[in-house]
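Design job #97: recover the sequence.
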């Protein structure tokens, strides 16, 4: 896809949008790049760009300790659905927590009710999904940190939001007292007509 087409991407208030969040991808990008957490409420608001939210789904991983429960509840409080999966621990201690196939299946399954599909991930494995959805008449968009996003994915989508371009808005940094400095915006789902 050429850059001129991206600059002409139209986002209007009546577009029905689905947001599919690869939590692990964003979590580790923010942690490794900025030693911070992601403000998922603000990420979803930016992805919506004033359009109608049909579904916002965060794909998350449960650990044995359950320490992530407050985070899952916070996502739900912001109007973001969660789909949970247990972390897989292999012999030798290797761990895996991959939601890529689940995200692809949900995006394809829900896409008939959407005008735009937003993948919140920089993972290049989503390129075939974006190509398929565009061929089905959907606008395809991605949201990620530019430094860790696949350049091929960025080229493939109709619109890309670089979270690194406004770190203060999209990151949560712990202050000296351990309190979070920024609170995420609440995501509101518009009633369907």
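Job complete. Output follows.
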């Amino acid at each position: 896809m050429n850059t001129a087409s991206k600059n002409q991407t139209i986002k209007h208030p009546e577009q029905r949008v689905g947001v599919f969040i690869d939590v692990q991808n964003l979590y580790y990008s923010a942690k490794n790049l900025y030693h911070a957490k992601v403000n998922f409420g603000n990420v979803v608001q930016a992805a919506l760009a004033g359009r109608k939210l049909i579904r916002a789904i965060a794909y998350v991983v449960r650990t044995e300790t359950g320490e992530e429960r407050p985070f899952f509840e916070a996502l739900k409080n912001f109007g973001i659905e969660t789909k949970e999966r247990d972390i897989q621990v292999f012999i030798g201690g290797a761990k895996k927590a991959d939601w890529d196939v689940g995200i692809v299946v949900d995006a394809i399954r829900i896409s008939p009710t959407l005008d735009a599909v937003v993948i919140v991930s920089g993972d290049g494995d989503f390129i075939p999904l974006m190509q398929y959805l565009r061929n089905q008449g959907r606008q395809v968009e991605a949201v990620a940190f530019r430094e860790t996003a696949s350049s091929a994915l960025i080229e493939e989508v109709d619109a890309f939001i670089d979270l690194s371009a406004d770190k203060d808005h999209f990151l949560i940094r712990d202050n000296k007292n351990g309190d979070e400095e920024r609170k995420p915006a609440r995501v509101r789902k518009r009633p369907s007509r």
